Amino acid sequence: MTGRLTGEIGQRTRRLIYGELGAADIAAELNLQTTVDQAHVLMLAGQGLVAAPAARGLLECIGRLREQQYAPLIGRPAPRGLYLMYEGYLIEQLGPDVGGMLHTGRSRNDLKVTCTLLRLRAWLIEFAEQATRLEAILLARARAYQDVLMPVYTHFQAALPISYGYYLLGIAEALGRDLQALRQLADGLLVNPLGAGAVAGCDLPIDPDHTARLLGFQRSTRHALDAVASRDVPLRLLGSVASIAITLSRLAADLQLWSSVEFGFLQFPDRLVGGSSAMPQKRNAFLLEHLRAKPAQVIGAWSAAAAAMSATPFTNSIEVGTEAVASIWPGLTAAEHSVLLSQVLVSGARPVPDRMAERAEHGFTTATAVANRLVQQGIAFRSAHRAVGDAVRLAAEAGSTELADFGPDGWLAGIDRSSIQARGLLAAQAYGGGPGAFSSTLATAIARWQDDRRWHTELRRASVTAEQQLQAELDRLLTDPVTPAASGDAA
């Protein structure tokens, strides 16, 4: 109850809104909140808004709770949510004149969005590590299989000769663009909303830049209303990883088709396939089916979050800050699973070069090259296209794949036959980003991956540095009997 309110919601409604608060739930939420509290108390002390003895009392009590994994809070009633239950405990332990000072200069509104961004940033650091690892796996396999000839398919029909490595390099290129988009939106996770208060900032002389440094943010928010009203950053983050999941599901669709007995292009080791409960002969590449389905969960989560956010007032809102954000986490988890599954599947898949080459060499994949050689002899492309099409039809009717035998007499005279062989075309298709440009494309992709790795490493390093700075200021305030950490001090 508060000074204004004399009643509280019932237990059943409380469970509907806040859930059942088990030990793991309490620890997961309060680990973030108490980290923010530590930074906030240090800032208040540095600004002279809380006296050093009171600040030490608060920090020591918070520290004990963290060491005990919040055991004293388990089983306590929380009619208005976990945060106020926790704050109530501090007041019980320290008295209202000390425990009641924790919330000075802030609101649950800016506290909540700060915790959300911290949680998203921690998730992103781990996800980025796994995504860049997948990028490295794709590039390594692309280089290893750059000469493994295979046909590329359009409309499920053999089209042109490529290599398996060239295909994997294409997936790496798409993933690299997805990671570039992820990097751009990650800047939104580096803006500190703490200090925005309930919705319009604060009239106390707080120092949001101080808490920003201690919590690993690069800068403070310029607009309090925007800070507490908006959740576009987590929504765009989810949209970005949905693109990654979609790219990887398309990879899975190809790998599943190519690993079928009818194609026989790829094989997976026993550890990556499953059997059948009824049919002894089966080797089901079932992990690929999981990978194909993951985007549905990510897109569904985005749709749920976006629907909850739409048409809400642009201010602090339960629909946006609680309901919409709750929908985001399952989608992020599904995207993470997509990346982890792709790592083992790409690294475990083994091409069957003979089978791949046979289909490239006997699937009329050189027909376009034959037409192009005729063009170089002065024949209009459409006429050349028609002549080669006639030859393909006649060869197919005869059960042959040798185009040279089914055109007009001498129609390929003067054409180097090696230039229209499937394997020879890998190098010849050097224009427009074809397999012949593999080496330069790979070099550019590796440079981009190295940049992605640097970005991820710097993101993690900045987070660790902030943790160290927070701990240093905590140690200084807790051991100095007189002087609190000043807001502008470096740890």
Tell me about this structure.
With 491 residues, the chain is mostly helical. It contains 17 helices and six strands. The chain has helices spanning 11-18, 23-46, 52-67, 82-94, 96-99, 108-144, 164-186, 208-215, 224-229, 232-258, 286-309, 318-348, 353-361, 367-376, 381-398, 422-428, 438-479, and strands at 149-154, 157-163, 191-192, 219-220, 266-267, 350-351. A two-stranded antiparallel sheet has the order 1-2. The longest helix has 42 residues, at 438-479. Mean pLDDT is 93; it is low at 487-491.
Arithmetic mean of pLDDT: 93
Our Rg estimate from Cα atoms comes to 31 Å
Number of strands: 6
Instruction: Point out poorly predicted stretches.
Output: 487-491
Number of helices: 17
Alpha-beta classification: mainly alpha
The span between the termini is: 40 Å
The amount of helix comes to: 55-70%
Question: Would you summarize the structure shown here?
Answer:
63% of the residues lie in helices and 4% in strands.
State the main characteristics.
single chain, 491 residues, mainly alpha, two-stranded parallel sheet, 17 helices, 6 strands, 63% helix
List the helices and strands and how they pair.
Layout lengths: L10 H8 L4 H24 L5 H16 L14 H13 L1 H4 L8 H37 L4 E6 L2 E7 H23 L4 E2 L15 H8 L3 E2 L3 H6 L2 H27 L7 E2 L18 H24 L8 H31 L1 E2 L1 H9 L5 H10 L4 H18 L23 H7 L9 H42 L12
Parallel strand pairs: 3-4
Antiparallel strand pairs: 1-2, 5-6
Helix pairs in contact: 2-3, 2-6, 2-8, 6-7, 6-12, 6-17, 7-10, 7-17, 10-11, 10-12, 11-12, 14-15
